[in-house]
Amino acid sequence: MTVNQPLLRVEGLTKHFPVQKGLLDRISFQGGRLALRSQVVHAVNGVNLVLARGETLALVGESGCGKSTLAKTIIGLHTPTAGQVYFEGQEISRLQGRARKPFRKKIQMIFQDPFSSLNPRKKVMDIIAAPMKVHGLVGKTDRQTKVYELMEKVGLHPAYANRYPHQFSGGQRQRIGIARSLASLPELIIADEPISALDVSIQAQVLNLLMAMQEEFHLTYLFVSHDLSVVKHLSNRVAVMYLGFLVEVAETEAIFLKPAHPYTRLLFAAIPTLDVLEFREGDQQEGEVPTPIDLTRGCPFHPRCGRTQALCREMRPELTSLASVSGGEHLLACHYPVRD
Amino acid sequence: MSGADVILEIKGLKTHFFTRRGVVKAVDGVDFSLRRGEVMGLVGESGAGKSITGFSILRLIDEPGRIVDGEVIFEGRDLLTVPEAEMRRLRGDRLAMVFQDPQTSLDPVFTVGSQIVESLVFHQSLSPSQAGSRAAELLRAVGIPDAEKRLAAYPHQFSGGMRQRVVVAIAMAQNPALLVADEPTTALDVTIQAQVLTLMRRLVRNHGTAMILITHNMALVGQFCDSIAVMYAGQLIEHGTKEKVIRDPQHPYTQGLIRSIPGRQERCRRLDQIPGMMPNLIDLPPGCPFRPRCPSAGGDCVQRPLLRPVGLDHQAACWRRNRP
């Protein structure tokens, strides 16, 4: 293992889901003959991504853009249709059972919904102790002390260890989820919209906790979110996804300063921030996110893009490196990037 | 904020829910007024009582809830004393509401057209064919292409953003004087949210409709509204123009909330956070509801502070801010 080896490398990762439909919906005429058509949801299409140890990469995009599917494929909740996931240099995407187990320990996930991601029939003690038990990390006798320790770290009173999830508020439940993800001493944590289900005054509390835990445990975060102010605050790099494709990847400051992809522009303009108090009507663009079932030719964004030219309809732009002023890498998939 | 232009004035509104576990004081003494054409953002966390305030204006409170006190004076009449039959005519005519989830506020077994026509026939006594062409007009006005054809479609054949446009079209059909929108874009994607809000803003402006936008998103009201009212634990704790409330908040809760929103601090620094969480609305202790979490709480906070002027077009309910 070299020192510079990335913690996680994703290559050409693709995940397609077959559409489950009745026979009648699938019958179509092709060349005068009946044919059975099978439809596919192109959730993730050929994603290349690298995560350096200790960094926070934010994955942003609208719902249905495939960001959660990508996260779940990386952690192994889905088997990829094509492509590879390398963790510390080892391909893990098709590992199963015993071979997978060490990686389950090293990659953990924090889910969006703190209500459905905790087993309602287990006590907090058992929920947090489960990863220690499964991975044989802490002996039976020490487990209780370890759980108390973790609970204190995430800001829960150890006296609550024998309570059930329903006895806690949303913010407290998210703290339980964070404690559980830390229990196996992971290196990478995938957080899928970890604060979007929480109340505004609680969001800052959980964000602070996530930042503190990253420092203390030297964690690497893949942070899935659509909240740009949060992304701006805690990520080092931002990856923008549209219809299963990565369209722009750059350092946080660079992308907020000079978003180069028209979609990134649209997305950033649509999200209100406290910096601007007037309503800018001119920025709005019509059009909706198309379905990922039938992929269009060319650039996935071209039907909504205001700068579409002939090339955009014909050829899909590759994610390539853009000459960047700051020196950091700026990747972009666009034939006619925005420059101003 | 007074004068002849006031179309809605709420005085001492109290809506309580009588549950087996106790009385939930969801709205506990709210006062505010709204001028013609004013767009007000009503913000707060879940459980702060903002939706119940909205529902109370249209008298859409169900058992075990009850509006126990107060006045809702709309166009010079107290809506709380209007007979139910007349209230039914007012809803959808002078008063309209848009709900959070367009999936559930449209009936899945009727076509979009028939749902628009229903309201037109009820309120304007149009003939079915007149109503049909008016419905197509309304759909075009909210930016739905192929309006005549789309009238025959069912709600599930529309996307979320399109459905919410239909709901907005129905709500605005009678040129209401007041539109209450309860988290109208929370279920939508951000780029679609911007489209729907632009549309609502334009319609409201063209018709001179006053609007209450209920949301938890501070940045959204900052952009979209003229004034902001902040609710906490069933009470209105700050009210003023958006510039005042966002740039110069006076109540410690609003101050904490705005400071805790990331984006303007140095990157990766710890955010200022409000400790604790909103209290249980059953057995809410007397006095300022924010007292347990407040950094500047003192002995006088056991008395409930009322909303008082802290500046021009700016009010706050805090003992610390009332003394000039």
Break the fold down into its secondary structure elements and pairings:
The complex is a heterodimer of chains A (340) and B (324).
Chain A: E1 8-18, H1 23-26, E2 27-30, E3 33-36, E4 40-51, E5 56-60, H2 67-75, E6 82-87, E7 90-91, H3 97-106, E8 107-110, H4 124-134, H5 140-153, H6 170-182, E9 188-192, H7 200-217, E10 220-225, H8 228-234, E11 237-242, E12 245-251, H9 252-257, H10 262-270, H11 310-314, E13 320-322, E14 330-332
Parallel strand pairs in A: 5-10, 5-11, 8-9, 9-10
Antiparallel strand pairs in A: 1-4, 1-6, 2-3, 6-7, 11-12, 12-14, 13-14
Helix pairs in contact in A: 4-5, 4-6, 5-6, 6-7
Chain B: E1 6-19, E2 22-35, E3 39-43, H1 50-57, E4 65-74, E5 77-78, H2 84-90, E6 95-98, H3 102-105, H4 112-124, H5 128-141, H6 147-150, H7 160-172, E7 178-182, H8 190-207, E8 210-215, H9 218-224, E9 227-232, E10 235-241, H10 242-247, H11 252-260, E11 308-311, E12 314-316
Helix pairs in contact in B: 4-5, 7-8
Key phrases:
heterodimer, A: 340 residues, four-stranded antiparallel beta sheet, globular, B: 324 residues, Rossmann fold, 32% helix
What does this structure look like?
The complex is a heterodimer of chains A (340) and B (324). Chain A is built from eleven helices and 14 strands. Chain A has helices at 23-26, 67-75, 97-106, 124-134, 140-153, 170-182, 200-217, 228-234, 252-257, 262-270, 310-314; strands at 8-18, 27-30, 33-36, 40-51, 56-60, 82-87, 90-91, 107-110, 188-192, 220-225, 237-242, 245-251, 320-322, 330-332. In chain A, a hairpin with a 2-residue loop joins strand 6 (82-87) and strand 7. In chain A, helix 6 runs parallel beside helix 7 (200-217). The radius of gyration of chain A is 22 Å and the shape is globular. Chain B has 324 residues and is of the alpha/beta class. Chain B folds into two domains: 6-94 and 174-316, Rossmann fold, CATH 3.40.50.300; 108-173, no CATH class. Chain B has helices spanning 50-57, 84-90, 102-105, 112-124, 128-141, 147-150, 160-172, 190-207, 218-224, 242-247, 252-260, and strands at residues 6-19, 22-35, 39-43, 65-74, 77-78, 95-98, 178-182, 210-215, 227-232, 235-241, 308-311, 314-316. In chain B, helix 8 links the parallel strand 7 and strand 8 (210-215). In chain B, helix 7 (160-172) packs parallel to helix 8 (190-207). The longest helix of chain B is centred in the middle third of the chain and has 18 residues, at 190-207. The interface between A and B is large, with 46 and 48 residues.
